[in-house]
Amino acid sequence: MSTAPQQSIAFDDVFPVAQGLLEAESDPIANMANLSALLYEALPDVNWVGFYIMRDAELVLGPFQGRLACTRIPVGRGVCGVAAQSHSVQRVADVHQFDGHIACDGATESEIVIPIIVNGAVYGVLDIDSPRKDRFSEDDQQKLVALVKLLEAVLLAL
């Protein structure tokens, strides 16, 4: 089972670290790369953390940490595609029970996807996978949504 390395940053400390990273840089790719690395380091029991970016009406793989990933995801397909289509967080306790789940890594058991909305349109999604069922809590969701709001503010300023 693949998991994130021993963490040196606690998840509760992610927000201020992310805020500092985002204040220091405006490039979206650099910011998503650092945020994926930060979350991969801070979150226990995750096997993939990354971003998909909307390009020509489909989600295209962006910066990530973890094993090889699906490169393109149609809107409306899989957990990421549903999050993009619905503009809503998808927190899935058991991906095997999610109709249409796309299995990029067979070790993944649960997933959370937060859409990134800029000017009312989907810019992309933050996707986090875990090899443990029911890994993501309501508290995790609230913290991750707050983190995505920080990223949205930087993207809006571009």
UniProtKB/TrEMBL annotation:
Record family assignment: Belongs to the free Met sulfoxide reductase family.
Pfam families per UniProt: GAF (PF01590)
Domain GAF: 48-153
Transmembrane segments: none
Superkingdom to which the source organism belongs: Bacteria
InterPro entries named in the record: FRMsr_CS, GAF, GAF-like_dom_sf, Phosphatase_reg/MetRdx
Descriptive protein name: GAF domain-containing protein
